[in-house]
UniProtKB/TrEMBL annotation:
Keywords: Signal
Name by which UniProt lists this protein: Uncharacterized protein
Biased composition (Pro residues): 27-38
Signal peptide: 1-28
Region (Disordered): 27-70
């Protein structure tokens, strides 16, 4: 999910997309093993919650390093989605305390001053959480109005110190839902992601996959599985869109014809996984807590990885993206901490997972079901696994295990070759940004970034900026962790 999501307590009412997209910029030359560059997405590493459309949870920027300095920005809202576009401005999509509605905050990256705000229509419980930046720096999201929105920010006035946020375009999803299930509000979009052929993909709470085409405004839907639900984010690659329901993993696609018009949503493959007998403590749904992750040593998209919900120990499950064939299935973590709500880091042939078993979320989504056991201690723990072998004979082997009590979705800085996460210490009385050696799992350095319950990072995702700043959402706003001054 938050590891996907931090406070996603339910799904939000749908809506998708907007106005005609301009031709995308030329696609950057791919580098072996790195996620493929999506020409319809914003900067690689900061355009989606998980860094890129493949949900690799990697960044090509360096992090703040040892001796970093933390600055807190209080927004009186929970901020699970913090993105940054080509212009450098921070776009934080936060959930308001009072009405649980999403609000887009445009924040100056230097002063952390909010230069523009737009309050969106509330949807189910928490409103819009998943969003992305397109190649024009527009935030694409869904709110409770039943539309997908393209939100654009521009400088206002002669001084340029303030900005305005406007609705550049929108596509109404309500007619498509009415046709699919009888009423405009019979289902709700949980997540959106950019397709590699210009489509805007989405998944719904009631187990549907769909897209909106910004060129034609066509909306298409497909039921993934009767009685299945989607509680996590989705991922895209040139092969299509990967989505995990509470029962199975799917790959779907929709090809354009010679006239440039997309067809129906087609299911390429479906693979059921072990969903276990019940929701585990520290997870927000009964089933996988993972956003699917594309990765691979050559193209960065040969495989798709998830974690299941098996007992007593969950598994890392790796599929071949083209066929859905299971490449490996390996137990992860230990009997006392084998559960995760977070997306895995995956790069080339390495996968890193973090335990959220027993994490004390303040609430759970409607319909999540009782946890079994009802409560458990949050002890944390992380693991590195390596995919190895030739041809069809491959294995996923554990290379290290540590005891870091990760309270945020870990991210790997490729430039620095360091994993960053936030550690919850002393039962939530202290929160440290920790740097971890991906080769051995040992902690390289730590920086205290907050104290007490208001600094809770709630398993949310951090975002890196080109200058090495790490932006981390909290239950009251965000923290900017900057590199130590030179000299």
């Amino acid at each position: 999910m938050f590891g996907s999501r931090a406070l996603v307590l339910s799904t939000l009412l749908a809506t998708l997309l907007a106005a005609v997209l301009v031709p995308p910029p030329a696609q950057a030359k791919p580098r072996p093993g790195l996620p493929p560059v999506n020409p319809y997405a914003g900067p690689v590493g900061s355009s989606t919650m998980h860094g890129d459309p493949a949900s690799s949870d990697t960044t090509r920027y360096r992090g703040p390093g040892p001796g970093a300095r933390a600055t807190t920005r209080t927004l009186l809202s929970v901020c699970p989605t913090i993105l940054a576009g080509k212009d450098g401005y921070i776009q934080a999509l936060c959930t308001e305390y009072l009405d649980r509605a999403p609000t887009l905050n445009i924040i100056d990256p230097t002063t952390l001053r909010t230069v523009a705000r737009k309050h969106l229509t509330a949807g189910s419980l928490l409103g819009g959480v998943y969003a992305y930046l397109d190649h024009r720096d527009r935030l694409v999201t869904v709110d409770g109005s039943g539309r997908v929105l393209f939100l654009e920010h521009r400088r206002a006035g002669s001084t340029g110190r303030t900005m305005t946020i406007t609705e550049a375009a929108a596509i109404d999803l309500k007619p498509a839902f009415t046709r699919a299930c009888g009423a405009a509000d019979c289902d709700a979009v949980t997540t959106v992601a950019p397709g590699y052929n210009g489509l805007v993909w989405f998944a719904t709470a009631q187990g549907r996959a769909g897209y909106a085409d910004p060129r034609t405004r066509k909306v298409a839907l497909r039921v993934l599985g009767r009685g299945e639900q989607v509680a996590n984010s989705i991922s895209t690659s040139p092969a299509g869109m990967a989505v995990v329901t509470d029962h199975a993993t799917y790959l779907v696609k929709a090809n354009r014809n010679r006239a440039g018009r997309p067809g129906a949503v087609k299911q390429v493959w479906r693979r059921a996984y072990d969903r276990g007998p019940a929701r585990k403590p520290g997870q927000l749904s009964h089933g996988s807590g993972a956003t699917p992750t594309f990765f691979g040593p050559r193209t960065g998209r040969e495989y798709v990885a998830i974690t299941d919900n098996a007992r007593p120990r969950e598994h890392l499950v790796v599929y071949r993206a083209a066929s859905g064939r299971t490449v490996c299935k390996t137990p992860i973590l230990g009997r006392a901490n084998s559960g995760t709500e977070n997306s895995a880091i995956a790069l080339r042939n390495q996968v890193y997972v973090a335990s959220t078993y027993g994490y004390p979320y303040p609430a759970t989504p409607d319909g999540a079901g009782e946890a079994v056991p009802a409560k458990a201690d949050f002890v944390g723990g992380m693991q590195r696994l390596t995919l190895s072998g030739k041809g069809r004979k491959k294995t996923c082997r554990v290379r290290w295990t540590n005891t870091v009590a990760s309270a945020a979705v870990p991210k790997l800085s490729v430039a620095e070759n360091v994993i960053y996460t936030v550690e919850r210490l002393a039962q939530g009385s202290r929160w440290d940004l920790v740097r971890i050696d991906p080769a051995r799992g040992r902690v390289l350095s730590r920086t205290t970034i907050g104290r007490g319950p208001t600094a809770d990072t709630l398993q949310m995702v951090g975002t890196f900026l080109p200058d090495g700043t790490l932006l981390q959402g909290t239950v009251t706003g965000l923290v900017a962790v900057r590199p130590a001054p030179a000299g």
